[in-house]
């Protein structure tokens, strides 16, 4: 049988557990936001490293294996003539540019988003591992998640 834990210690453990879950949920939500933004630039396959249950039902739509038009901006512009007119939304303002001007900035943005996404994934995995070791150290068994 499990040893009885005093109420104060039990409350501390519950607070720590709640903090871990909140942090993981916030990271998962940020990852979902970045993935959604990355879809607008370039097709990025969905990493299957975070369980779908970590995302709130509205925070992150799960990806499919098919390409949607919103994920094809760079791929759509690449075959076009470099001097062709295109429009880009910058801070809510629609700006006229040429394909030659837009593609490099879109690639830079997509690369930056990928780096941020990779870093957030590392943070999520690290926090998940930290929580798992904390649960093991404190003999925590989750009854209801």
From TrEMBL:
Keyword presence, Cell membrane: no
A Gene Ontology molecular function term of the record: unfolded protein binding
InterPro entries, sorted: PFD2, PFD_beta-like, Prefoldin
Residue ranges of coiled coil: 103-137
Gene Ontology terms: biological process: protein folding
Keyword Translocase found: no
Protein name: Prefoldin subunit 2
Record key words, sorted: Chaperone, Coiled coil
Pfam families found in the cross-reference section: Prefoldin_2
Family: Belongs to the prefoldin subunit beta family.
Domain of life, per lineage: Eukaryota
GO CC field: prefoldin complex
């Amino acid at each position: 049988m499990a040893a009885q834990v005093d109420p104060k210690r039990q409350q501390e453990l519950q607070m720590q557990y709640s903090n871990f879950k909140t942090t993981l949920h916030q990271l998962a939500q940020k990852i979902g936001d970045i993935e959604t933004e990355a879809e607008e630039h370039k097709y990025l396959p969905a990493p299957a490293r975070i369980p779908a249950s970590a995302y709130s039902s509205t925070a992150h739509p799960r990806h499919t294996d098919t390409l949607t038009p919103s994920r094809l901006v760079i791929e759509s512009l690449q075959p076009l003539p470099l001097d062709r007119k295109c429009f880009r939304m910058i801070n809510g303002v629609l700006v006229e540019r040429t394909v030659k001007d837009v593609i490099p900035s879109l690639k830079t943005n997509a690369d930056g988003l990928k780096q941020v996404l990779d870093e957030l994934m590392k943070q999520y995995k690290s926090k998940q591992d930290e929580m798992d070791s904390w649960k093991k150290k404190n003999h925590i068994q989750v009854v209801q998640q």
